[in-house]
């Protein structure tokens, strides 16, 4: 028994010592950068085709103005959404904690049975299951955390996470938004070339985001990058298509 305890204790210490990617930060970065890139790309493609078809004298100025306006509006909006949604997740978790605590007091037999079912899913049976069950329910904190994680599938939310998410999503949205704009800044007055280069650069950036996501988490980087690029560019092209139809296809 002592040897087995020492073994599992060592496993626990090694696990805690490992450095893992923080899923919240990763998802926030992907959310902000992808959303910023796709939305602004759709806006500037739509503005570009409309400005060119209407024969506007300085279409580049209109494209950059529209793109920058969309960039900062998008970053503020996405940061606010990240902040409020994270607070909502935290409030939901806390409300479920209070409800679960009350059920542990009012319906202990039912809650014990739910712990037993969780342990059975983990291949505990017979005396071993009953021993583990008693150990868990004798520790209210362990009992509560087990129910939150494995019955309700909820994880605690750090009180500071809302601010961190808002800042990261907002910054990532700005970075992503600038990617499709930069080709127009560099190329200048050749709008068609700017559109083509912006699409190529944006596709490469989306692929890189998807590739990095798979490398950091799990999955095949090539497939993940391709999926991210296809979905993102298809969404952005919807804006281009709408502008093209509204302008009657003139100047294409």
Unreliable stretches covering 5 or more consecutive residues: 1-21
Mean pLDDT across the residues is 82
Strand content: under 5%
Number of strands: 0
Largest sheet: none
- How many discrete domains? 1
Counting H and I runs of at least 4 residues, what is the number of helices?
9
Q: Helices and strands, in N-to-C order?
A: HHHHHHHHH
Q: Give the class from helix and strand content and strand pairing.
A: mainly alpha
* End-to-end Cα distance: 78 Å
Overall geometric form: elongated
Percent range for helical residues?
A: over 70%
The Rg value, from CA coordinates, equals 26 Å
Explain what the structure shows.
This protein has one domain (23-245). 84% of the residues lie in helices and 0% in strands. The chain has nine helices and no strands. It is mostly helical and 252 residues long. It has helices spanning 2-17, 23-53, 59-106, 108-121, 126-137, 140-150, 161-187, 191-216, 221-246. Residues 1-21 have low confidence and may be disordered. The longest helix has 48 residues, at 59-106.
